Amino acid sequence: MDESGDKRSVNAPAAKQTPRGASSRLALLTLVLAAVLSALVWLDARQRIAETQEQVARRLREMEREGGAASALAQQAQNAVRELQASVAQLDARLNDAREKQRALDAMYQDLARNRDEWQLAEIEQILDIASQQLRLAGNVRAALLALQLADARLARADRPQFAPIRRALASDIERLKSVQTPDIPGLSAKLDALVGAVDELPIGAAERASPAGARTSAPAEQGALARLGADLWEELRGLVVLRRIDTPEPPLLPPTQAYFLRENLRLRLLDARISLLAQDSTGYRADLRVARDWIKRYFDPGSKLVAAALAQIEQLRAAPLAAEMPSIAQSLDAVRSFRK
Q1: Which of 82-91, 285-294, 319-328, 332-341 has the weakest average pLDDT?
Q2: pLDDT reading at 209 higher than 50
Q3: Cα angle at 77 between 74 and 81, to 5 degrees?
Q4: What are the tens digits of pLDDT across the range 59-76?
Q5: Closest to 335 (Cα-Cα) out of 128, 113, 89
Q6: Measured between alpha carbons, how far is 194 from 178 in angstroms, rounded to an integer?
Q7: Residues contacting 5, CB < 8 A, separation 6+
Q8: Which helix (H) or strand (E) holds 106?
Q9: CA 12 to CA 196: how far, in whole Å?
Q10: Given CB 3.0 to 4.6 Å as the disulfide criterion, which of 35, 134, 235, 282 pairs with 143?
Q11: Residue 311: its pLDDT value, please?
Q12: Residue 124: which of 83, 78, 157 has the closest Cα?
């Protein structure tokens, strides 16, 4: 019992020392682990720092490259801006030149327009003067109407608002000329032509057809050749002189026994009447028709239907009015002259 007691007393301190050594070893192990972990953490941190530095360096290099490119771009942009400014300055100069030229062209165009208007109005005034002369001297309404319509057409092509008063005056005069009742000159001329063509068909009067030279007395057959020769000689001598009483103051230019010259004189009278008709000379027209009527009554057969129809036609032609009251186009002329002033 003592021995077992001694063994317990001897092993008791050893049992007490075993937990303390374990804790020491645990602490040491902990320190080692902590050192290892710290080393690992330090290595990892260093590696991370190295990587970060490398990334930062790479980023800086990229930024430097980008900065260089940006500087180049900025320089290019500055150069482009300077070029644009120079171009803008040139464009401004060209724009100013163009404006100056435009103003000069506008001034020239206005001068040209004024001159063109002046020339056009002068031409229209001349046309209207001619139309007025045609109305006053010849009574030619158609020519005056065509002249007014021509003037209005030219003003319409010009398309200028300031010409409106002139066009209104022209329109008024045109309507006035259209309302004029003009004689049927072509119809009357055609009737005169028909009379001229019918002159050869008019029969000569019986008293005019008998020619004194043809009223020879035939010598008796039983007379001799000497007697017949004397009779013929006497008839020829009697035919040399013809005495005729003329009651009218205007006889034909040639003896009426010569039917050819009578018809030609009558034809000339009718042609003179047509010329007077075309010239609207009513006095000469009626005088020629009166002479033609008197010649037909005197030298042609009054019992013939052709002669009666010719006389009736001449009377109708004489009764036809030639003159009409001519209107004035002074309104249009005054409008043009006032505008020019």
Answers
A1: 319-328
A2: no
A3: 140
A4: 888 888 887 777 788 888
A5: 128
A6: 30
A7: none
A8: helix 2-133
A9: 188
A10: 134
A11: 92
A12: 157
